[in-house]
């Protein structure tokens, strides 16, 4: 057999021997059997995902997981807020850097360093944080923002602000509840 690409005799050059088993595998791979199975699986999966009872069950399970995680981490969070722990979340199935927690990021004020610290170990100088807090208030007065272009703010020249609303802010990979932001603002008497 002569290859069209390399114009050499493949059987001679590579010393290939195609037996009945290999021919059967090649024929099987070329058949529509696999496409039909994939299509059938996709239909069944779509039907399962459209089931309202399943969706409700999944949502209840997600809420239960989040509540359990919060209960499990309550003591660790308190230790983190008091500078007794490095990470506010119990280190179960977590990435080394950052958190794969479904819980939002937390904030604390480090008076010694004059910094606001996040639970992902990012430190923001108080002056920068105060300026950002004022910006948040302006954006909230306008109804919030929900995209990088709309928010148009970069914190520490590193982290793009992609969402600001009454419930939360998203800065880079940080999801922070407005409750956390307001607690820091009260603590530093910005409110």
Quick overview:
With 191 residues, the protein is of the alpha+beta class. The chain has helices spanning 10-14, 20-30, 33-50, 52-81, 126-141, 148-151, 178-187, and strands at residues 107-110, 115-118, 123-125, 154-155, 159-164, 168-171, 174-177. The strands form 2 sheets. A 4-stranded antiparallel beta sheet has the order 4-5-6-7. It has a 3-stranded antiparallel beta sheet with strand order 1-2-3.
Salient structural properties:
alpha+beta; 191 residues
Would you mind describing this structure in some detail?
The protein is an alpha+beta fold and 191 residues long. Among the domains are: 10-50, no CATH class; 104-191, no CATH class. The chain is built from seven helices and seven strands. The chain has helices at residues 10-14, 20-30, 33-50, 52-81, 126-141, 148-151, 178-187; strands at residues 107-110, 115-118, 123-125, 154-155, 159-164, 168-171, 174-177. β5 and β6 form a beta hairpin. The longest helix has 30 residues, at 52-81. The model is unreliable at 93-100 (pLDDT under 50).
Largest sheet, in brief, is: 4 strands, antiparallel
Helix content: 40-55%
**Oligomer status:** single chain
- Order the strands across the largest sheet as they lie in space: 4-5-6-7
Mean pLDDT: 84
Secondary structural class: alpha+beta
* C-alpha end-to-end distance: 82 Å
Q: Taking Cα atoms only, what radius of gyration do you get, to the nearest Å?
A: 28 Å
SSE pattern, N- to C-terminal? HHHHEEEHHEEEEH
Q: How big a fraction of the residues is strand? A: 5-15%
Total beta strands: 7
Shape: elongated
